Amino acid sequence: MNHLEMAAGRSGGATQIPYYQSIGGECALFQHAFEQRLPLLLKGPTGCGKTRFVQHMAARLDRPLYTVACHDDLTAADLTGRFLLRDGETQWVDGPLTRAVREGGICYLDEVVEARKDVTVVLHPLTDDRRLLPLERTGEQLQAPDDFMLVVSYNPGYQHILKALKPSTRQRFVALAFDFPPPEQERDIVARESGLDTPRATALVNLAARLRALKGQDLEEGVSTRLLIYCGSLIQAGVPVLEAARATLVEPLTDDADVQAGLLEALRATFGED
């Protein structure tokens, strides 16, 4: 898919599809899941392109997208809606999940394992053949239209016994595993998104491979494609290479002074003294 491809907007205008470089058959699988009214689970490391992928597919399918960043305090009511006092009257206000169901949109729950347990409970009727969203407070039983889709994601590297999707929840979804792109594709992505020239984008990607090898040893997580783009953007804006790399490829990854020193040595070996 060319990143300049345009899709017809629902209002009749043209909507630019967010850039996403397909790695395998994920775009086709997403479309098939949408057409078969199946919920989708994306799993992969932070910053590997899961959110951009969903944005890209929502634009291709010409559906409104409601994205929710899940966290410890997220409740089912935050998704479905609640009664609020407005102009002296109590009014029901739909949450993002309810709006997506009513409109026939895509609801994307990012890092769903971070949400409270009552969130997954409210999702269950939407992820089987019923495709229902019960709203207990209003007494409604919303039937999801054919063009509604539920997509959730999480980072398996952060899972532990207190924050994991139960098998009864996981098995309600079609699943796609994401990882960082192959080097040549990641180079093209970094160059395109940051404006950096190909040789320096290649150097960044080669450095990322070295840093990712430290995952599970000195680093909890490897450097993400997102951070490589940030680094490239700063370099392209005129920030000295080592300064940009330290701000994007060292400080965000660790607070350990010894590990930071080792990462800086890897930077100097890649880029030389700046």
Automatic annotation (TrEMBL):
Q: Does the record carry Oxidoreductase as a key word?
A: no
InterPro entries the record matches: ATPase_dyneun-rel_AAA, CbbQ/NirQ/NorQ/GpvN, CbbQ_C, P-loop_NTPase
Q: Which residues form the ATPase dynein-related AAA domain?
A: 39-173
Q: Where is the CbbQ/NirQ/NorQ C-terminal domain?
A: 186-269
Source domain of life: Bacteria
Alphabetical list of PANTHER family matching this protein:
DENITRIFICATION REGULATORY PROTEIN NIRQ (PTHR42759:SF7), MOXR FAMILY PROTEIN (PTHR42759)
Native organism: Parahaliea mediterranea
Similarity field: Belongs to the CbbQ/NirQ/NorQ/GpvN family.
The entry lists its GO molecular-function terms as:
ATP binding; ATP hydrolysis activity
Name of the protein described by the UniProt record: CbbQ/NirQ/NorQ/GpvN family protein
Which keywords annotate this record? ATP-binding, Nucleotide-binding
